[in-house]
Amino acid sequence: MAKVVVLGAGISGHTAASFLKKMLGKKHEVVVISPNRYYQWVPSNIWVGVGRMTVDQVRFPLDKVYKKWGIVYKQAKALEFFPEGDSENQFPYVTIEHVSAEQKGEREKVSYDYLVNATGPKLNFEATPGLGPAKFSYSVCAYDHAAHAWEGLQKAIEAMKNGQKQRLLIGTGHPGATCQGAAFEYTLNIAFELKRKKLSHMAEITWITNEYELGDFGMGGAFVKRGGYITSTKVFTESVLTENNIKWIKRAGVTKLEEGVAHYQTLAGEEKTQKFDFAMLIPAFKGQDFKAYSKTGEDITAKVFAPNGFMRVDADYTPKDYEDWTIADWPQTYQSPAYPNIYATGIAFAPPHGISKPMKSPTGLSITPAPPRTGMPSGVTGKIVAQNISHFIKHGDSEHKHKASMGRMGAACIVSAGYSMTKGLGATMTVSPIVPDWQRYPEWGRDIKATVGEVGLAGHWIKLFLHYMFIHKAKGYPFWWLLPE
Amino acid sequence: MEKKTEIRAYKDEFYPPVPTKATKFWRTNILYQFYKFWRLNFKIMRIVVKGHS
């Protein structure tokens, strides 16, 4: 009997665990270790942040689903990796610390034959002094953060109703932050809700971003075939913001927050401030600060993890100039080069480099979005790793039958721009591949026929449809495995 | 009362295209958007299926 341990139960980890159990059946053991007892459909958090969905609509408890599937679930956080075992244990293992009320603080060694690290990002609020829900800004990166943001937004709305103009600042809260899409959605949803409440004239909404140009979204922007023209996502994004009377500050690295004031440095090196009454700013992401040790107890963290804390996989991490980046640098199997029975999926793997062109201010501050790995890539990488591991276990093979490179796979991003079944809006954006392939597509870097950028009610329906479809899938309801990632 | 947005040249907000009344109408026209829903879903599905082997 083989034992597969999955760390994390987000989009990637939950997908990996569900397919592993389905493919391996009762003969083998699948263990999921996650400190959060809920699965959350992160893309809908922005609707929690504007009061259009409740927290319980975007999450559900994991234990019931795992019990039904026969997956062992431990509500705990992983601490250390021992990929060679130690002097007492010949099998590799991870040390975990339980966080459930019944076992809080208990430590355990969990051995494995295969390990899938799908622990997602650590929201690095500490990287920007004053940033975060406990300080001067809000976040929509988790359901509880989004619920908290809704409380803050309601106060701002009340103030507007009482005749006080409010300055709302939404965007990225660190010079190297990613996930611009979520912040962008939140901005548009706020604008939509204020319009619905006839309060638009009482709000000054500002979009602040570390992108060189709007519409970069951490993937170097894209080109869209639209209305007889090929247009950049810069134009598309600026158009959407202009239409909603949202101002923007681009090429800005937020360096510090104080009560009601965001300090930022521009790419030109200027130190500026932006005042706000309500701010929702996305933090930088980093790995989970795991430690790894060899059999003799030697610290091998640097061998297993990149300096940013994400796990090294089958990518080419050789430092290269932007002009030399190719899709061949990107991983395909997500296998650790140091330990072949360890994989990292979703946000947990270390990207070889960015996708957006690196930019530095004259003071040396890097103001560049990190590459996105959320949503579709997370689900897809979770699934192919599950398929490969179950193939190895069942057939004793070591060839990866399934591959998924971000230089080959496409992605759809449905940017909600207002929640309503008849008046709602969503911007549907698709790109293929995510990482531009300039050799295959020398003109635009991507397949221009597969790239879409459209705004309309259909986009809102698709986003809502995906919400219910993925919750259905994650809960293991009938035919869940037929639904694509 | 809603204040009408004034867009002047030489400001960033002037340069991007803004939708006409007709574009806004089609964006929320139920029948047209119903067609778009299926068309966009089909495009997304093609990307998903092509994305991994």
Q: Any key phrases for this structure?
A:
heterodimer, A: 485 residues, alpha/beta, FAD/NAD(P)-binding domain, 5-stranded parallel β-sheet, 4-stranded mixed β-sheet, 10 helices, 25% helix, B: 53 residues, mainly alpha, 2 helices, flat
Structural class of chain A: alpha/beta
Classify the helix fraction of chain B into a percent range: 40-55%
Subunit organisation of the chains:
heterodimer
The average pLDDT score of chain A comes to: 95
Low-confidence stretches of chain A: none
Instruction: Note the overall shape of chain A.
Output: globular
Q: Which residues of chain B sit in consecutive blocks of at least 5 with pLDDT less than 50?
A: none
CATH third-level topology of the domain at 3-122 and 285-395 in chain A? FAD/NAD(P)-binding domain
User: Roughly what percent helix of chain A?
Assistant: 10-25%
Largest sheet of chain B: none
Q: Tell me the series of helices and strands of chain B, N- to C-terminal.
A: HH
**Cα distance spanning the termini of chain A:** 28 Å
Helix tally of chain A equals 10
Rg of chain B, please?
18 Å
Strand percentage of chain B: under 5%
| Major beta sheet summary of chain A | 5 strands, parallel
Task: Give the tally of β-strands of chain A.
Answer: 25
Task: Please name the CATH architecture of the domain at 3-122 and 285-395 in chain A.
Answer: 3-Layer(bba) Sandwich
Main-sheet strand order of chain A equals 5-2-1-9-22
Compute the gyration radius of chain A: what is it? 22 Å
The percentage of residues in β strands of chain A lies in 15-25%
Describe this structure in words.
The complex is a heterodimer of chains A (485) and B (53). Chain A is of the alpha/beta class and 485 residues long. In chain A, 25% of the residues lie in helices and 25% in strands. Chain A has a domain at 3-122 and 285-395: FAD/NAD(P)-binding domain. The relative contact order of chain A is 0.15. The mean pLDDT of chain A is 95. Chain B has 53 residues and is an all-alpha fold. Chain B has two helices and no strands. The longest helix of chain B has 22 residues, at 30-51. The model of chain B has no long low-confidence stretch (mean pLDDT 80). Chain A binds chain B through residues 198, 200-201, 235, 238-239, 241-243, 245, 247-248, 376, 380, 383-384, 402-404, 408-412, 422-423, 425, 428, 430, 432-433, 450, 452, 454-459, 461-462, 465, 484-485, and chain B through 1-3, 5, 7, 12-13, 15-19, 26-30, 33-34, 36-37, 40-41, 43-53.
